Amino acid sequence: MRHHSWRVRGLAIMLAFLLANPDVLEARYKPTSGSVGGVTYEQEIQMGQQAAQQVRQQLPVLPDSSPITQYVQRLGQDLAAHAPGYRWPFNFHVVNQKDINAFALPGGPIFVNLGTIRAADNEAQLAGVMAHEISHVVQRHAMRAAVKEYKAQVGLGILGALLGGGTLGSLARAGIGFGANSYFLKNSRGNESEADLIGADIMYDTGYDPHAMADFFKKLEEESGARGSQFFSDHPDPGNRYGAVTRELATLPARSNYRSDSQEFQNVKRLASGMKPLTAQQQRQSGDAGPISGDVGEPSGSLRTMQHSAYTIQYPSNWQAYGDANSTVTIAPQGGLRQDQSGQSAVAFGVIIDGFDSENQEDTLDQETHELIQSLQHANPQLRQVGRDEDIRVNGVSAKSADLIGVSPIADSSGGQQRERDWLVSIRMANGSLVYLVFIAPQNDYNRLRPTFEQMLRTFRLNQQ
After folding, report:
1. pTM (2 decimals)?
2. Domain boundary at 227, 253, 286, which?
């Protein structure tokens, strides 16, 4: 009897503790933890930062000094402070497009279309969209999709990289990236369900009613239909969002004093409503898919240095290097990265520097170069070689040079396909593998840029030879 009495007393004490501390009763949706296919948090952040630079080239992103952007950044950081799991370095941007949409890149960059701000009735609805995108980062949805695709291409366990780039370099060489309209930013219904539930928790902890998120999605569907909105193209409806959010909210302590709106949001919405953004389709038709269109300008005569783990190269100071010391590198002028006809990111002006490892380690430089060209043609069937490749030397090292013709992502004046000139230079490294450069320009601009390409090649030096 005495033992039973102590047990009852213990249960009573525990129940009183739980009632006095309702947070202990919470049954939140748990975010995923751990690695994603060998990609570390740091690598994912790096890849997201590189992709964000590409997005700025591809889309009309408002400057950080814009009052609309500054408001979105403040709201985003308020929400991100309550995101669970790993502390991603979230940053927020506004795209000057009329379409209602938003997307999250791996590692923290989040882009919200101006049309989304204009469509929201109040701050809570906009917060719901942003909390939803933050949740995609928390769950690493884009990176998981990319790694899954990569493994399907090359098989499990093959994640090495020729130039020491690890998974990042391997993903880039497989053509997997996260530019605007990337396939890997389009979510599954399962991903959407997870983002709704984690987003509901973030909204609750920030002081917003999570139902506002479901209300906004329902409003979009009623006004444009699930198939008629770009948002639902990238964020398919997982079904009964309102009910799922309600069930998640029931696991949390009751609250009545939710934040709903602010004067600052209404001021920003009026400012956004006074602007005249184009839709994404209108911008593509007008040739203005980003902040820069038409001629990319003359290359600067002053040079800056790119220090890679395998080589060094100098390039015009008004061009931008995308990549780091251990990954595939693209060097291009502002506006040099464009969308091709499939909506994927492509280099229209600039140079790509990458590595190639022949299956037969005993192949000669000539044989490896031909294998490389065949590999490039396999990835791009429209690419063909012009003339014969030549033996050259790059700073005293034997190399091969070949001219190729392809299709530029920039259309001609009539809207048709424009030819592209690609100058391939391959150089054998000390370990027998190749490092290669592909200098790229539309045919009409190639001769103008050829002296710059030659100048860059003269500065190219392998670190160990």
Report:
1. 0.57
2. 286
